[in-house]
Design goal:
By secondary structure, the chain is an all-alpha fold. The protein is built from three helices and no strands. Helix 1 packs antiparallel against helix 2 and helix 2 runs antiparallel to helix 3. The longest helix is centred in the N-terminal third of the chain and has 18 residues. The radius of gyration is 19 Å and the shape is globular.
């Protein structure tokens, strides 16, 4: 759908509501990467509660940053964009961000693969980087 207005300062309502022009998709992705790099430095490694009860951790920022860099690198069949001019650099950045997420002390792979699907163990799984847990009420799902 193209770009969206990119606000990097607190929004103050005024007579020009919505008059900000759309930013290019490339600039949106660059800002997302910048914000996630900053978040990775500022977020805590862990919280007292298992997985922080939906609070973001440093590993979650690194994981999302890896996804952003992969998107910025683009697919083999994509038309050339300004971002793809540095595809190799973005792929390397994605690799480094993914390594940072995997090497974070708060993350690891489940020893028993099927534990990933056990609803009694999902809230404390070290493999989940960020998840908002829904409340199961009589097995009817989140309310």
């Amino acid at each position: 759908y193209g770009g969206v207005p990119l606000r990097t300062a607190p929004y103050v309502p005024n007579a020009q509501l919505g008059a900000q022009a759309r930013a290019t998709p490339d600039s949106i992705w660059r800002q997302a990467a910048k914000d996630l790099r900053a978040a990775a430095e500022l977020l805590p490694e862990s919280y007292a509660a298992p997985n922080g009860h939906a609070l973001p951790r440093r590993a979650a920022a690194w994981g999302l940053l890896a996804k952003v860099y992969l998107h910025m690198a683009g697919r083999e069949t994509d038309t050339v964009t300004a971002l793809q001019g540095t595809k190799a650099a973005y792929l390397d950045s994605a690799r480094q961000a993914a390594l940072a997420a995997m090497q974070d002390p708060s993350t690891s792979l489940e020893e028993v693969y099927m534990d990933l699907f056990d609803i009694n163990k999902q809230n404390t799984s070290p493999e989940i980087l960020l998840a908002v847990q829904g409340a199961a009420v009589n097995n009817s799902g989140s309310q």
